[in-house]
Amino acid sequence: MFFREPTDARGKPLSALVERLAAPPYGVPRAVMPLLIAAGYRAFARAVALYIDGIYLPDVLGFQFDQLVMNSDAVSIRVVATDLKMINYLRELSYAFTHEQPGAEDELIRAAHDAIAQWRAGVPEGSRRTQKLDTPAKALLRAIDAAGDPVDM
């Protein structure tokens, strides 16, 4: 399965899935592919990161799948191997920042990324300059601000 087979750090190109769906025996028209790929992502992706030209795509909306399919050569999909330890880690990370557990069908890397981003958005900018934060707290804020790829975070 495309969204479940672990990849290396480079991921795999979305164009491979697009070409496979377009070829016999499937012969899926390009107009239908965004719907199929979005449904496959929603149904099967559990620890997946999407990249466009090597940059993490922080938000996946339904209409973006049209653009992803049209520009599939620039899109790569990184699938992280998930064992029970990794699943629990990502679920607990989400809970630590939002006090909400991801749903059973949620994509866990995106859920953890969104939880951290939501928490960070609520931290006042003045907190970075204050002398009242201890060194580990400042280091956490710096790490979150510097992170571009949630998989490497």
Plain-language structure description:
The protein is of the alpha+beta class. Helix content is about 45%, strand content about 10%. The chain is built from 6 helices and 4 strands; from the N terminus they run E-H-H-E-E-H-E-H-H-H. It has helices at about 15-20, 35-45, 65-70, 85-100, 110-120, 135-145, and strands at about 10-15, 50, 55, 75-80. It has a 4-stranded antiparallel β-sheet with strand order 1-4-2-3. Helix 2 (about 35-45) crosses helix 3 (about 65-70) and helix 4 runs parallel beside helix 5. It is elongated.
Please give the structural blueprint.
Layout: E1 12-13, H1 14-22, H2 33-44, E2 48-52, E3 55-56, H3 64-70, E4 75-79, H4 84-98, H5 108-121, H6 135-146
Antiparallel strand pairs: 1-4, 2-3, 2-4
Order of helices and strands, N to C?
Answer: EHHEEHEHHH
Rounded to the nearest angstrom, the distance between the terminal CA atoms is: 26 Å
Largest sheet: 4 strands, antiparallel
Q: Which strand-content bin applies to the residues?
A: 5-15%
Estimate the mean pLDDT confidence: 90
Shape: elongated
- Overall number of strands: 4
Strand order in space, largest sheet = 1-4-2-3
Enumerate how many helices there are, as a single number: 6
Features:
153 residues; alpha+beta; four-stranded antiparallel sheet; 6 helices; 4 strands; 45% helix
Summed up, what is this model?
This protein has helices at residues 14-22, 33-44, 64-70, 84-98, 108-121, 135-146; strands spanning 12-13, 48-52, 55-56, 75-79. With 153 residues, the protein is α+β, with helices and mostly antiparallel strands. Helix 4 packs parallel to helix 5 (108-121).
